[in-house]
Amino acid sequence: MRKLLVCTAIGTLLASHASAAAPLAKEPGWSTTLNLNVGFASSESQFNTDSDNAITDDLNNSGKKQDSFLGYPLLRVEYTTENLKNQWFLGNSPENVGRGQLQYELGYTRAMGERSQLTAAYFPRLKLFSETWQDPFVVGEKRHKTDESVQGLRVEWKAIAESPFSAEYVFAQRKIDDEHSGESRAGINTALLRREADIHRLDLGVSFPLSQRLFMSPSFVYTRVNADGDAMSNDDYMLRINTVYRQQQHLLNLNLEWGQRKFDEANPVFNRTQKDDHYSLFALYVYQEPFGWSNSMFNVTAGFSRNNANITFYDSSGTFAALGMGYRF
Asked: What is the CATH number of the domain that holds 166?
Protein backbone atom coordinates (compact mmCIF):
# COMPACT_ATOMS: atom_id res chain seq x y z
CA MET A 1 0.00 0.00 0.00
CA ARG A 2 2.90 2.35 0.67
CA LYS A 3 3.83 2.26 -3.02
CA LEU A 4 0.37 3.44 -4.09
CA LEU A 5 0.26 6.28 -1.57
CA VAL A 6 3.64 7.70 -2.48
CA CYS A 7 3.12 7.36 -6.23
CA THR A 8 -0.15 9.23 -6.15
CA ALA A 9 1.39 12.09 -4.19
CA ILE A 10 4.23 12.81 -6.56
CA GLY A 11 2.31 14.90 -9.05
CA THR A 12 1.91 17.67 -6.54
CA LEU A 13 5.61 18.53 -6.64
CA LEU A 14 7.15 21.16 -8.91
CA ALA A 15 3.90 22.23 -10.51
CA SER A 16 5.44 25.48 -11.67
CA HIS A 17 7.64 23.41 -14.03
CA ALA A 18 4.82 21.52 -15.75
CA SER A 19 5.11 23.27 -19.12
CA ALA A 20 7.29 21.38 -21.61
CA ALA A 21 8.50 24.64 -23.17
CA ALA A 22 9.62 26.28 -19.91
CA PRO A 23 13.27 27.46 -19.61
CA LEU A 24 15.60 25.66 -17.23
CA ALA A 25 15.28 28.44 -14.64
CA LYS A 26 14.39 32.12 -14.33
CA GLU A 27 17.76 32.94 -12.76
CA PRO A 28 21.07 31.16 -12.10
CA GLY A 29 22.16 29.57 -8.85
CA TRP A 30 20.56 27.24 -6.33
CA SER A 31 16.84 26.64 -6.07
CA THR A 32 14.78 24.34 -3.84
CA THR A 33 11.11 23.40 -4.01
CA LEU A 34 9.39 21.82 -1.02
CA ASN A 35 5.82 20.53 -1.17
CA LEU A 36 3.72 19.06 1.66
CA ASN A 37 0.58 17.06 0.90
CA VAL A 38 -2.26 15.31 2.70
CA GLY A 39 -5.06 13.27 1.20
CA PHE A 40 -6.90 9.98 0.88
CA ALA A 41 -6.32 6.87 -1.25
CA SER A 42 -8.36 3.75 -1.93
CA SER A 43 -7.20 0.68 -3.84
CA GLU A 44 -8.03 -2.93 -4.57
CA SER A 45 -5.20 -5.29 -5.54
CA GLN A 46 -3.82 -8.66 -4.52
CA PHE A 47 -0.43 -6.96 -4.32
CA ASN A 48 -1.37 -4.43 -1.64
CA THR A 49 0.80 -5.40 1.32
CA ASP A 50 -1.44 -4.00 4.06
CA SER A 51 -2.03 -6.49 6.87
CA ASP A 52 -5.76 -6.73 6.05
CA ASN A 53 -4.83 -8.10 2.64
CA ALA A 54 -2.24 -10.61 3.87
CA ILE A 55 -4.62 -13.59 3.70
CA THR A 56 -6.62 -14.50 0.61
CA ASP A 57 -9.18 -17.32 0.62
CA ASP A 58 -8.66 -18.17 -3.05
CA LEU A 59 -6.91 -16.94 -6.20
CA ASN A 60 -10.10 -15.97 -8.04
CA ASN A 61 -10.41 -12.47 -6.61
CA SER A 62 -8.54 -9.17 -6.89
CA GLY A 63 -7.87 -8.65 -3.18
CA LYS A 64 -9.54 -6.60 -0.48
CA LYS A 65 -10.31 -2.92 -0.79
CA GLN A 66 -7.92 -0.78 1.25
CA ASP A 67 -8.52 2.84 2.35
CA SER A 68 -5.70 4.97 3.73
CA PHE A 69 -4.84 8.56 4.57
CA LEU A 70 -1.98 10.12 2.66
CA GLY A 71 0.72 12.44 3.98
CA TYR A 72 4.08 13.01 2.36
CA PRO A 73 6.74 15.73 1.88
CA LEU A 74 8.40 16.09 -1.54
CA LEU A 75 11.56 17.96 -2.46
CA ARG A 76 13.62 19.06 -5.48
CA VAL A 77 17.01 20.80 -5.39
CA GLU A 78 18.66 22.23 -8.53
CA TYR A 79 21.63 24.34 -9.56
CA THR A 80 21.62 26.38 -12.80
CA THR A 81 24.71 27.98 -14.33
CA GLU A 82 25.05 31.70 -15.13
CA ASN A 83 24.17 31.25 -18.82
CA LEU A 84 20.96 29.34 -17.89
CA LYS A 85 21.98 26.50 -20.20
CA ASN A 86 23.15 23.87 -17.68
CA GLN A 87 21.28 22.50 -14.69
CA TRP A 88 22.06 19.78 -12.16
CA PHE A 89 19.17 18.47 -10.11
CA LEU A 90 18.21 16.06 -7.35
CA GLY A 91 14.59 15.02 -6.82
CA ASN A 92 11.60 14.61 -9.10
CA SER A 93 11.92 15.74 -12.72
CA PRO A 94 9.32 17.92 -14.44
CA GLU A 95 9.00 15.27 -17.17
CA ASN A 96 7.30 12.98 -14.64
CA VAL A 97 5.16 15.54 -12.81
CA GLY A 98 2.18 15.54 -15.17
CA ARG A 99 2.12 11.74 -15.24
CA GLY A 100 1.80 11.34 -11.48
CA GLN A 101 4.94 9.19 -11.30
CA LEU A 102 7.26 8.73 -8.35
CA GLN A 103 10.86 8.76 -9.48
CA TYR A 104 13.62 10.46 -7.52
CA GLU A 105 16.53 11.28 -9.81
CA LEU A 106 20.03 12.67 -9.86
CA GLY A 107 20.64 14.24 -13.24
CA TYR A 108 21.76 16.92 -15.63
CA THR A 109 19.90 18.97 -18.26
CA ARG A 110 21.47 20.94 -21.11
CA ALA A 111 19.51 23.61 -22.98
CA MET A 112 20.18 23.03 -26.70
CA GLY A 113 18.22 26.09 -27.92
CA GLU A 114 15.18 28.16 -26.99
CA ARG A 115 13.03 25.05 -26.40
CA SER A 116 15.21 22.00 -27.00
CA GLN A 117 16.60 20.29 -23.86
CA LEU A 118 18.65 17.13 -23.37
CA THR A 119 18.43 15.35 -20.00
CA ALA A 120 20.33 12.40 -18.57
CA ALA A 121 19.37 11.09 -15.12
CA TYR A 122 19.93 8.20 -12.76
CA PHE A 123 17.22 7.00 -10.41
CA PRO A 124 18.48 4.96 -7.45
CA ARG A 125 17.15 1.88 -5.76
CA LEU A 126 14.83 3.05 -2.94
CA LYS A 127 13.45 0.06 -1.07
CA LEU A 128 11.37 2.04 1.38
CA PHE A 129 8.87 3.03 -1.33
CA SER A 130 7.74 -0.43 -2.50
CA GLU A 131 6.86 -3.80 -1.05
CA THR A 132 5.37 -6.97 -2.50
CA TRP A 133 4.61 -10.51 -1.37
CA GLN A 134 7.38 -13.11 -1.29
CA ASP A 135 4.83 -15.58 -2.70
CA PRO A 136 1.59 -13.89 -3.84
CA PHE A 137 -0.12 -17.27 -4.42
CA VAL A 138 -0.32 -18.45 -0.81
CA VAL A 139 -3.95 -19.33 0.06
CA GLY A 140 -5.56 -19.53 3.50
CA GLU A 141 -2.57 -18.33 5.50
CA LYS A 142 -0.58 -15.13 5.95
CA ARG A 143 1.60 -13.96 3.07
CA HIS A 144 4.97 -12.43 3.94
CA LYS A 145 6.31 -9.11 2.65
CA THR A 146 9.57 -8.40 0.88
CA ASP A 147 11.17 -5.27 -0.52
CA GLU A 148 10.87 -4.51 -4.23
CA SER A 149 13.09 -1.86 -5.81
CA VAL A 150 13.96 -0.40 -9.20
CA GLN A 151 17.02 1.52 -10.37
CA GLY A 152 18.00 2.74 -13.79
CA LEU A 153 18.86 5.48 -16.27
CA ARG A 154 16.71 7.91 -18.25
CA VAL A 155 17.66 9.94 -21.32
CA GLU A 156 15.27 12.46 -22.87
CA TRP A 157 15.56 14.87 -25.79
CA LYS A 158 12.74 17.37 -25.55
CA ALA A 159 11.76 19.50 -28.58
CA ILE A 160 14.32 17.76 -30.82
CA ALA A 161 16.21 20.39 -32.88
CA GLU A 162 13.53 22.95 -31.90
CA SER A 163 10.80 20.73 -33.42
CA PRO A 164 7.59 19.70 -31.63
CA PHE A 165 8.87 16.11 -31.31
CA SER A 166 10.41 14.52 -28.22
CA ALA A 167 11.90 11.14 -27.36
CA GLU A 168 12.71 9.41 -24.09
CA TYR A 169 14.44 6.09 -23.33
CA VAL A 170 14.54 4.44 -19.92
CA PHE A 171 16.45 1.36 -18.81
CA ALA A 172 15.70 -0.05 -15.37
CA GLN A 173 16.37 -3.15 -13.28
CA ARG A 174 13.76 -4.53 -10.89
CA LYS A 175 14.97 -6.45 -7.84
CA ILE A 176 13.00 -8.45 -5.26
CA ASP A 177 14.82 -9.33 -2.06
CA ASP A 178 13.08 -12.65 -1.32
CA GLU A 179 11.46 -14.11 -4.41
CA HIS A 180 9.40 -17.24 -3.66
CA SER A 181 6.59 -16.92 -6.21
CA GLY A 182 4.65 -20.15 -6.63
CA GLU A 183 6.57 -22.17 -4.06
CA SER A 184 3.31 -22.77 -2.17
CA ARG A 185 1.79 -24.45 -5.26
CA ALA A 186 2.70 -28.08 -5.81
CA GLY A 187 3.76 -29.41 -9.19
CA ILE A 188 4.41 -26.15 -11.08
CA ASN A 189 7.52 -24.67 -12.67
CA THR A 190 8.24 -21.78 -10.30
CA ALA A 191 11.08 -20.51 -12.51
CA LEU A 192 8.42 -19.14 -14.90
CA LEU A 193 7.14 -16.82 -12.13
CA ARG A 194 10.35 -15.02 -11.18
CA ARG A 195 9.71 -11.26 -11.28
CA GLU A 196 13.20 -9.72 -11.28
CA ALA A 197 13.64 -8.06 -14.65
CA ASP A 198 15.41 -5.71 -17.04
CA ILE A 199 12.97 -3.09 -18.29
CA HIS A 200 13.23 -0.99 -21.45
CA ARG A 201 10.84 1.89 -22.21
CA LEU A 202 10.65 4.10 -25.30
CA ASP A 203 8.40 7.18 -25.33
CA LEU A 204 7.86 9.07 -28.59
CA GLY A 205 5.71 12.20 -28.47
CA VAL A 206 4.73 15.47 -30.06
CA SER A 207 3.59 18.74 -28.44
CA PHE A 208 1.47 21.42 -30.06
CA PRO A 209 -0.68 24.39 -28.95
CA LEU A 210 -4.45 24.32 -29.29
CA SER A 211 -4.56 27.99 -28.27
CA GLN A 212 -2.32 30.50 -26.48
CA ARG A 213 -3.18 28.89 -23.14
CA LEU A 214 -3.90 25.25 -24.03
CA PHE A 215 -1.24 22.69 -25.02
CA MET A 216 -1.59 19.02 -25.91
CA SER A 217 1.12 16.34 -25.97
CA PRO A 218 0.10 12.89 -27.26
CA SER A 219 2.72 10.14 -27.17
CA PHE A 220 3.20 6.44 -27.84
CA VAL A 221 4.97 4.42 -25.15
CA TYR A 222 6.41 0.94 -25.63
CA THR A 223 7.73 -1.02 -22.66
CA ARG A 224 9.53 -4.35 -22.76
CA VAL A 225 9.94 -6.32 -19.53
CA ASN A 226 12.54 -9.09 -19.75
CA ALA A 227 11.83 -10.94 -16.51
CA ASP A 228 13.75 -13.92 -15.16
CA GLY A 229 10.50 -15.86 -15.50
CA ASP A 230 9.02 -16.06 -19.01
CA ALA A 231 5.46 -15.93 -17.66
CA MET A 232 6.28 -12.53 -16.15
CA SER A 233 7.97 -11.14 -19.30
CA ASN A 234 5.71 -8.89 -21.35
CA ASP A 235 5.26 -6.19 -23.98
CA ASP A 236 3.22 -3.09 -23.13
CA TYR A 237 1.83 -0.72 -25.77
CA MET A 238 0.35 2.51 -24.43
CA LEU A 239 -1.11 5.76 -25.71
CA ARG A 240 -0.70 8.82 -23.48
CA ILE A 241 -2.41 12.21 -23.93
CA ASN A 242 -1.19 15.03 -21.71
CA THR A 243 -2.98 18.39 -21.74
CA VAL A 244 -1.87 21.58 -19.95
CA TYR A 245 -3.96 24.74 -19.56
CA ARG A 246 -2.42 27.94 -18.15
CA GLN A 247 -4.08 31.26 -17.33
CA GLN A 248 -2.36 33.80 -15.10
CA GLN A 249 -1.98 32.13 -11.68
CA HIS A 250 -3.85 28.96 -12.68
CA LEU A 251 -2.49 25.72 -14.14
CA LEU A 252 -4.49 22.59 -14.95
CA ASN A 253 -2.76 19.39 -16.08
CA LEU A 254 -4.68 16.31 -17.27
CA ASN A 255 -2.94 13.05 -18.14
CA LEU A 256 -4.85 10.17 -19.77
CA GLU A 257 -3.25 6.77 -20.47
CA TRP A 258 -4.60 3.62 -22.10
CA GLY A 259 -2.62 0.51 -22.93
CA GLN A 260 -2.47 -3.23 -23.50
CA ARG A 261 0.01 -5.64 -21.98
CA LYS A 262 0.73 -9.11 -23.38
CA PHE A 263 2.82 -11.73 -21.57
CA ASP A 264 5.18 -14.21 -23.21
CA GLU A 265 4.11 -17.55 -21.76
CA ALA A 266 1.32 -19.17 -19.78
CA ASN A 267 1.23 -18.55 -16.04
CA PRO A 268 1.63 -22.05 -14.48
CA VAL A 269 -0.63 -21.17 -11.51
CA PHE A 270 -3.59 -20.38 -13.79
CA ASN A 271 -2.65 -22.31 -16.96
CA ARG A 272 -3.31 -19.17 -18.99
CA THR A 273 -1.21 -16.48 -20.66
CA GLN A 274 -1.96 -13.13 -19.04
CA LYS A 275 -3.30 -10.19 -21.07
CA ASP A 276 -4.17 -6.80 -19.55
CA ASP A 277 -6.03 -3.67 -20.56
CA HIS A 278 -5.02 -0.77 -18.32
CA TYR A 279 -6.00 2.88 -18.17
CA SER A 280 -5.58 5.83 -15.84
CA LEU A 281 -6.53 9.47 -15.42
CA PHE A 282 -4.42 11.92 -13.42
CA ALA A 283 -5.36 15.56 -12.76
CA LEU A 284 -3.31 18.35 -11.19
CA TYR A 285 -4.53 21.88 -10.44
CA VAL A 286 -2.13 24.57 -9.23
CA TYR A 287 -2.83 28.08 -7.97
CA GLN A 288 0.35 30.17 -7.91
CA GLU A 289 1.08 32.64 -5.12
CA PRO A 290 -2.17 32.31 -3.11
CA PHE A 291 -2.95 35.30 -0.86
CA GLY A 292 -0.12 37.13 -2.62
CA TRP A 293 2.56 34.88 -1.06
CA SER A 294 5.58 35.05 -3.38
CA ASN A 295 7.12 31.77 -4.61
CA SER A 296 4.34 29.68 -3.08
CA MET A 297 1.69 27.42 -4.61
CA PHE A 298 -1.50 25.61 -3.64
CA ASN A 299 -2.25 22.34 -5.42
CA VAL A 300 -4.98 19.73 -5.74
CA THR A 301 -4.38 16.30 -7.26
CA ALA A 302 -6.72 13.43 -8.04
CA GLY A 303 -6.50 10.26 -10.04
CA PHE A 304 -7.97 6.92 -11.00
CA SER A 305 -6.35 3.80 -12.41
CA ARG A 306 -7.66 0.40 -13.49
CA ASN A 307 -6.12 -2.84 -14.73
CA ASN A 308 -8.45 -5.39 -16.34
CA ALA A 309 -6.76 -8.76 -16.82
CA ASN A 310 -8.00 -12.02 -18.30
CA ILE A 311 -6.92 -13.53 -14.96
CA THR A 312 -9.03 -12.07 -12.13
CA PHE A 313 -6.13 -12.35 -9.66
CA TYR A 314 -4.34 -9.55 -11.54
CA ASP A 315 -7.28 -7.12 -11.71
CA SER A 316 -6.65 -3.93 -9.74
CA SER A 317 -7.97 -0.40 -9.28
CA GLY A 318 -7.11 2.71 -7.31
CA THR A 319 -8.33 6.25 -6.65
CA PHE A 320 -6.86 9.14 -4.69
CA ALA A 321 -7.21 12.84 -3.91
CA ALA A 322 -4.75 15.15 -2.15
CA LEU A 323 -4.22 18.79 -1.17
CA GLY A 324 -0.81 20.41 -0.92
CA MET A 325 1.15 23.58 -0.35
CA GLY A 326 4.54 24.26 -1.88
CA TYR A 327 7.25 26.87 -1.59
CA ARG A 328 10.19 27.63 -3.87
CA PHE A 329 13.29 29.27 -2.37
From this structure: 2.40.160
Give the β-pairing of 29-44 and 165-176: unpaired
Helices (H), the chain: 2-9, 94-97
Which DSSP helix (H) or strand (E) runs through 263? Answer: strand 250-263
Task: For residue range 114-164, list pLDDT tens digits in order.
Answer: 899 999 999 887 655 689 999 999 999 999 999 999 999 999 999 999 999
Domain count, the chain: 1
- CA–CA distance, 49 with 45 (Å, rounded to integer): 9
**Residue 71: its pLDDT value, please?**
83
CB under 8 Å to 59, separation ≥6 — which residues? 137, 139, 269, 270, 313
Task: Supply φ then ψ for residue 6, to 5 degrees.
Answer: -70, -40
Domain of residue 259 covers 2-328
CB of 297 closer than 8 Å to CB of 325: yes
222 vs 204: CA distance, rounded Å: 9
Q: For 266-286, how does the pLDDT look when each residue is reduced to its tens digit (9 = 90+)?
A: 999 999 999 999 999 999 999
How close are the terminal C-alpha atoms of the chain, in Å? Answer: 32
The residue length of the chain stands at 329
User: Could you tell me how far CA 129 lies from the centroid of its own chain?
Assistant: 12
